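Sample pair:
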Amino acid sequence: MVFGDPDVERYKDKDSEEEIELHGIYFDTKDKRLSREGITFRTRKEGERFVATIKWNGVSENGLYEREEINIPICDESKFRNPDVELFKHSQMYDTLKEVIGERELLARVEAKLTRKQVRIDTGKSISEISYDFGLAINGDSSCQISEMEIELYSGDRQDMEEFSEKLAEKYHLMPENRSKYRQGLELEK
């Protein structure tokens, strides 16, 4: 499909194509303080490594996400299931997290178990990564299928990346999705 597309083949970094298993856990407080403040707190196992992520100031329109994001390696594997704000102690969001979470416990809200296929694209004007995630978002006893393609701009001309992604979307009948994996998992509660 998309990964065998002639344009993808022409621009791909041949050594960057890979497939990895992802297991993400999204956390919030019992009173949903992080969600109310527009902050997403996730830990994820990516192959053999563990990463903690926070995202904030997010907007999504026509499937195009813009947001701030910090990723921190997790050295203590126990923090994958039991994280705390100290993971972000050396980031600019530490004080905000401390204030928002306070003494509240972080609780697992949604899990995502996915396989990701990804490849880096260099058109000469922009460098992006195409990733395709497929698997499940899980909330308690409920789950939903995730099948999501994403192009993330690393550097260069945003318009070039958008034109490249629009061309692929039209060719393969891809539809924009404004709901994140986390949001889709939260909707299983309703």
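The chain has one domain: 2-189.
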